[in-house]
Amino acid sequence: MVSETRLTDPPAKAVLDALEGAFRALAEAEVARIRHTQISLTRAAKRTASEPEGVVQWAAIGAGAQVLLAWWTAISGQRHVRIVARAIPRDQDYLQNESKLGTRPAVWHVFPERVYRRRVGKTNDLIAVCACGAVGTEKALGWAGPCCGPCADFADDHGEQARAPALFGANEPCYAVSASACGSRVLTQSARALTVRDATGVPLFALPYERERLALPGPSPALSPCGRYLAHSDPAAGRFRVFDLSTQPAAESRQFAEVSAFAFHPTGALYLVTGGGLLVCEQPLARPVGTKFALAVSGGPIAFSTNGARVALRTEGYVHLFEMDGTPLARVPLPASQVFGQRPPPGAVPHVALSADGSQVAVALAYAVAVHHVVTGERRFYDGKLDGSATGAAFDASGKWLFVSRYDGSLVAHPTDTFAPERTVVLRWSLGPLRATAAFGDSLVTACDEGAKVWPVAQLLRGV
Ligand SMILES: [Zn+2]
Question: Any idea which fold 167-460 has?
Fold first, then answer.
């Protein structure tokens, strides 16, 4: 983002000044030039004073840059205006797509962080979730901009309260995301760096890459349950590294070669999949203490149930399920996509999730998702024609919902009792893709072009 201006109840002249400032900022940043006329700016600025809400875009021809003016009037009568100037890389063309922009009402363009779309069956709602936990349509909440009406009244009387962010914003796309199980820390991976932030968004640790990496092969980085350790596979450097974030600067505790997958067990132990098997390491210093089960081939990903009793590990075309004492349970095949033939697109990575009690396993790959009983291997659900390629899977703590994030920007919540399509919930936020998903306390967090987005799923599914 090159510039962002927020105004409350501004006269048209103030909006015009801010618009001119946005175009100046773009010119100074030397991103693409946007052709515009002074009369178009004046006309738009006047509209903000005479119409309750609206969205106006000035865009460069093709990819390049955009100035976006959006305004919206709250129930209290207060008018909120937001003016954004940004450079648009070619793969974020969707930001300029007029028909896509039109699917978002003005309130979303003004306060996007906490406004979501929710579709259940044929019902399509716009849902706002305040940081206080209040959830509902903007009218029901008396939405007052960044928060609900009661919170705005409280802020008027007592001053603003510190609120956990709903978006850990970044100036570059995020490709992978992880969070500590306790919800205290979030890890994001971009083409240039790994960044760990606390739950209020304050950066705690950054690991810049020596070279920009647009393709990010290999397993995603992970945070330990308490957020103290960061495990990261760096295929470019040919090594797997573990950092202890409790010291300043963070201590690099160990390096390994040939790690094809890794995950933190809920107890905090780090498990590595190497050529020979599943290696258990204890903290601190990621000290290997034994091999859990020998494996004929290496694989990944690896996933644990939240109760710590079971583990799922993919090798070749199957997901193998075990008790933690090594007793084998079922083996389930990767689900086949029925889009573009039966084969997954090249580079598609399987996503594996176990329910908290370890009774169900979900496997998502390309345009397919399947859920199986862990003990019997019996398939409970299968869909091979997803609208977008799957980029992540996670169960909620109760096991009642399975979430599948997709590259088309949807976060789909499947009810695990019946998997009935009419009760399946499709949540959306931005216009761009969701590239990865992780559990974040009671919420989920996804890797997006804007940064790491928090989805308060318990609130978003309330009443469904
Ligand atoms: Zn509130």
Answer: Methylamine Dehydrogenase; Chain H (2.130.10)
